[in-house]
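Tip: read the tokens left to right.
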């Protein structure tokens, strides 16, 4: 029996795949994530052995799990592109047209550059009909409603990669039959492509008719569109490119995180190279937190924001709601390439409070209180920490735009004695921003729970980039 399972990794919106033939007992995994136990579990469920681990390209948004998976299952080989690749670890190389047989089905590698020079896709076909593929694993070349961005390797390569992407889309994908199913490497929310659709799969026929990236018969217009319309490159992408090209460390298990009593935790937090991350909710954090800690709540996107804001050589101290949450949160964090942990606060904030250690607070300002402050002419500045596209779509009147991903560097010139109020879409990113400012010595920082969603729901005024209107 043929088996195809999609593993959707929330937060980074990454899609990986296990394909298997139960009669022959063999399986392949395509683009495994960092924490690889899930693939072993799926293989055991179907009674198959993972023999092949394929990488479509050098990933930029997560630490690859290919080496860890091959080591964990024993005997599996890693397969990488033979074209224009800068891999620094040994593996089997795949050239355009190479075929891999797995009992009832076959995978055929195709060189599909554009997102990266070495990019591969894999056609899926029945072993008896290799010339009639019924699906394709597109990696980061073609997404639902979008395509891979060609600018992640820098502006000096963007034009050439845009040309390659055009050829990949128009000379390869659009030559496939309409019924061919596409299984992409990312879903909605990933910065590896612009405005990726919500569905996790599609067909060539549907994309042919609806995907705006497939509607440019002119190369120049396409190049201008894909480069000019691309969102900002996340800061950690170039760093993860290097990690994945060199070969991520083999992780046979999650790194050990020592449980530290409050006084030991306090001493550790003062050491150089240590970052303290409080993973509780914004309201819990605002009510009382360890001085100098940054609030990135334990949602799937914690991996993205840790990657964006902190270098991979930083050692992390964690504060969690419950000691039982440590492993779950750590699993989210390692996906961003952060594998160095200095410890976690044993017993959580209750233990800290009981030990009589100092606390700091961040005021939580409702949208109604913010509106009242604005009407009184109080001396403060509203900071919109959403993305540029969100800001352009409308913002709180007189706010200043400081995208949270850029604040690590941009806030250095702000007056630390002035009062600031941060908001985002819901308050999650605003709490990251306000806590980052607080840790840098800003005296008066407030956060807006509910943020933009609550502001517009209340019917308060909205300012556009070049004009003022009302919600």
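Filled-in amino acids:
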């Amino acid at each position: 029996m043929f088996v195809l399972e999609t593993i959707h990794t929330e937060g980074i919106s990454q899609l990986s795949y296990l394909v298997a033939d139960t009669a022959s007992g063999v399986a392949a995994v395509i683009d495994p994530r960092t924490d690889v136990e899930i693939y072993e579990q799926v293989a055991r469920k179907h009674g198959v052995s993972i023999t092949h681990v394929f990488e479509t390209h050098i990933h930029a948004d997560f630490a690859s799990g290919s080496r860890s998976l091959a080591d964990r299952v024993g005997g599996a080989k890693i397969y990488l592109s033979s074209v224009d690749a800068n891999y620094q670890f040994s593996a089997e190389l795949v050239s355009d047209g190479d075929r891999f047989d797995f009992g009832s089905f076959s995978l055929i590698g195709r060189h599909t550059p554009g997102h990266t020079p070495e990019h591969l896709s894999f056609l899926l076909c029945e072993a008896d009909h290799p010339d009639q593929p019924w699906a394709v694993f597109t990696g980061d070349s073609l997404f639902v409603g979008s395509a891979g961005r060609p600018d992640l390797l820098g502006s000096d390569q963007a034009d050439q990669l845009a040309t390659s992407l055009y050829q990949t889309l128009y000379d390869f994908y659009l030559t496939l039959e309409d019924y061919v199913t596409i299984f992409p490497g990312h879903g909605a929310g990933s910065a590896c492509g612009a405005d990726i659709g919500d569905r996790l799969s599609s067909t060539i026929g549907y994309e042919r008719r609806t995907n705006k990236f497939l509607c440019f018969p002119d190369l120049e217009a396409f190049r201008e569109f894909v480069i000019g319309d691309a969102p900002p490159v996340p800061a950690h992408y170039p760093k993860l490119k290097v990690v994945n090209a060199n070969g991520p460390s083999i992780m046979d298990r999650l790194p050990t995180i020592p449980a530290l009593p409050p006084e030991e935790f306090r001493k550790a937090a003062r050491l150089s190279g240590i970052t303290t991350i409080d993973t509780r909710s914004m309201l819990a954090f605002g009510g009382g937190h360890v001085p100098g800690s940054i609030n990135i709540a334990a949602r799937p996107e914690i991996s993205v924001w840790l990657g964006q804001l902190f270098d991979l050589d930083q050692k992390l101290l964690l504060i969690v709601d419950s000691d039982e949450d440590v492993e779950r949160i750590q699993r989210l964090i390692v996906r961003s390439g952060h594998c160095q942990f200095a410890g976690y606060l044993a017993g959580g904030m209750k233990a800290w409070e009981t030990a009589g250690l100092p606390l700091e607070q961040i005021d939580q300002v409702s949208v109604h209180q913010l509106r009242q402050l604005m009407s009184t002419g109080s001396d403060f500045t509203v900071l919109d920490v959403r993305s540029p596209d969100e800001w352009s779509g409308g913002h709180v009147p007189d706010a200043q735009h400081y995208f949270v991903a850029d604040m690590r560097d941009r806030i250095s010139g702000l007056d630390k004695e002035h009062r600031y109020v941060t908001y985002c879409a819901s308050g999650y990113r605003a709490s990251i921003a306000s806590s980052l400012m607080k840790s840098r010595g800003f005296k008066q920082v407030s956060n807006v729970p509910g943020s933009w969603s609550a502001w517009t729901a209340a019917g308060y005024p909205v300012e556009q980039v070049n004009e003022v209107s009302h919600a």
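Residues 397 and 463 are 5 Å apart (CA to CA). The radius of gyration is 24 Å.
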